[in-house]
Design brief:
By secondary structure, the protein is an alpha+beta fold. It contains three helices and eight strands, in the order ββαβαββαβββ. Strands 1, 2, 6, 7 and 8 form a five-stranded antiparallel sheet that branches. The protein has a three-stranded antiparallel sheet with strand order 3-5-4. It is globular and about 40 Å long.
């Protein structure tokens, strides 16, 4: 499992890969949180969410958008997501902590998740995708 930032003209583009679809979603979630808040994140608070969508790409974008919303509205910085996917239904347990400007201000503000070029691919090695975070 891994993710890396790839050069992009205006926004943040991430390439992620993982052996399972759930792990791919989790890695992409971690990339979003790292872009926003850096690497120092705790896990004392738990939020559970359920998302349904029409395909895997929409499911991922809806999941990340909900995590972004919760982070901004509730002032939470998430470190991990435990995800289960059944068809196009996702149930996640997000672990995080309250935002602390002294520890979490090193990132970039993400305004949204882009559908542009978002395609989840699968081969013998697992799952992969490129995704753009609008900053």
């Amino acid at each position: 499992m891994s993710f890396e930032e790839i050069p992009h003209t205006a926004d943040v583009k991430i390439h992620a890969s993982a052996p399972t679809l759930e792990a791919l979603f989790s890695e992409t979630f971690k990339a979003l949180m790292q872009v926003m808040y850096g690497t120092e994140r705790g896990d004392g608070t738990i939020r559970k969410i359920r998302i349904e969508s029409t395909d895997n790409e929409s499911l991922l974008a809806d999941f990340l958008s909900e995590a972004l919303f919760l982070s901004e509205v509730e002032g939470l910085v998430f470190s991990d997501a435990r995800i289960r996917i059944n068809g196009y239904c996702l149930i996640a347990e997000l672990r995080g902590e309250s935002f602390d400007p002294a520890r979490h201000s090193g990132g970039s503000e993400v305004k949204g998740i882009s559908y542009s070029g978002l395609e989840i691919m699968h081969d013998a090695n697992g799952y992969m995708l490129d995704i753009i975070f609008d900053v």
